[in-house]
Design goal:
Enzyme class: hydrolase
CATH topology of the largest domain: Cathepsin B, Chain A
Catalytic activity: Thiol-dependent hydrolysis of ester, thioester, amide, peptide and isopeptide bonds formed by the C-terminal Gly of ubiquitin (a 76-residue protein attached to proteins as an intracellular targeting signal)
Number of domains: 3
Keywords: Cytoplasm, Hydrolase, Metal-binding, Protease, Thiol protease, Ubl conjugation pathway, Zinc, Zinc-finger
Largest sheet: 6 strands, mixed
Function: Hydrolase that can remove conjugated ubiquitin from proteins and may therefore play an important regulatory role at the level of protein turnover by preventing degradation.
Distance between the termini: 36 Å
Number of strands: 14
Helix content: 25-40%
CATH class of the largest domain: Alpha Beta
Subcellular location: Cytoplasm
Strand content: 15-25%
CATH architecture of the largest domain: Alpha-Beta Complex
Order of helices and strands: EEHEEEEHHHHHEEEEEHEEHE
Shape: elongated
Number of helices: 8
Oligomer: single chain
């Protein structure tokens, strides 16, 4: 029986599955979607179409084709808000402030990872994507961002001294402008301050969110995903089919909670790279390397930038 291919979008990204057939039941579909999203079947809400609409998947024994789903469709998965219907509350007395409503309105979209190349410039590529909503194809933006970082450091050597940089200022500035060098916390801090935007890095290794520029109280926030060695930008795909969004008000606590959930789910499913323990193989000269530091040193000394995890 030919496979029934579906594109599945969740908070953690999107993927294609073809484990079902046109004769599969709605129950089998919901069980598969529940495993992918870690959402219980009774809490699973599935949207499809443009603009996305909630599908009626209540008839477990019917075939999936009867639900209007066709092979090749895109399904957006979300968790239903907690229902408070049929709840009887008697003799409730309010004292002082009114009780806070624990239920928030459903999210207006899903945070999705946009995969960028693993070419040693993923941090800079990710930053330019969240600031502009697209990837620069001219090849000029990443060198510009590297130069901007170097000039910022050069102009404030008291703040960015050798103790902070881990190497002499001039050496660091030359190093970061090399397209084989990987950016990190120093570069994120500088770019956050330069563009006046908080950069929230969703760390899937430690299941935390590091907010660069938080102390500056910037009004807007962008999100990056970090798996230990690689950065990807996150964008919001709205349920109403409107244009994707990459810049958000810092007051959007619901979106921040969604990002935190991505970090926790990725950590629990080990969607990260332990930079202290993983072994890499240079795909150019077949040399085995230990951890992020070994890969960085090898890339700097040889110019090789293609690595595979062993």
């Amino acid at each position: 029986m030919a496979g029934f291919a579906l594109r599945i979008k969740t908070k953690s990204g999107h993927q294609v599955v073809n484990s079902l057939t046109k004769d599969s039941t709605i129950k089998e579909l919901k069980e598969m979607l529940s495993r992918l999203s870690n959402i219980p079947p009774n809490r699973l809400q599935v949207l499809s179409g443009f603009p996305p609409k909630i599908l009626d998947l209540s008839q477990d024994d019917e075939g999936i084709v009867n639900s209007g789903i066709s092979s090749g469709d895109t399904l957006i998965l979300e968790e239903k808000p907690v229902s408070v219907t049929n709840t009887i509350v008697e003799d409730v007395t309010m004292s002082g402030n009114e009780a806070e409503d624990p239920f928030e309105p459903p999210a207006h979209g899903i945070l999705i990872k946009h995969i960028v190349p693993s070419d040693n410039s993923c941090l800079f590529t990710s930053v330019q994507f969240v600031l502009n909503g697209k990837i620069d194809n001219t090849g000029s933006v990443n060198p510009y961002l590297r130069q901007l970082v170097a000039e910022t450091i050069t102009n404030d050597k008291e703040l960015y001294n050798e103790a902070i940089l881990g190497k002499p200022v001039d050496t660091y500035c030359a190093w970061i402008q090399d397209d084989k060098s990987w950016g990190g916390a120093i570069e994120l801090s500088i770019l956050s301050n330069h563009y006046g935007v908080e950069i929230a890095v969703v760390d899937t290794v430690n299941a935390i969110i590091n907010k660069f520029g938080e102390d500056q109280h910037y009004p807007h926030r962008v999100f990056l995903l970090f798996d230990g060695i690689h950065y990807d930008p996150l964008f919001l795909e709205p349920f109403d089919g409107s244009k994707l969004q990459t810049i958000f008000p810092v007051s959007d606590e619901q979106l921040l909670k969604q990002a935190q959930q991505i970090a926790q789910e990725a950590k629990s499913s080990r969607q990260f790279t332990d930079v202290d323990k993983f072994t890499l193989k240079c795909m150019v000269c077949n040399v085995f390397l230990k951890g992020q530091t070994g890969a960085q040193q090898h890339a700097q000394s040889t110019g090789h930038t293609s690595f595979g995890e062993v």
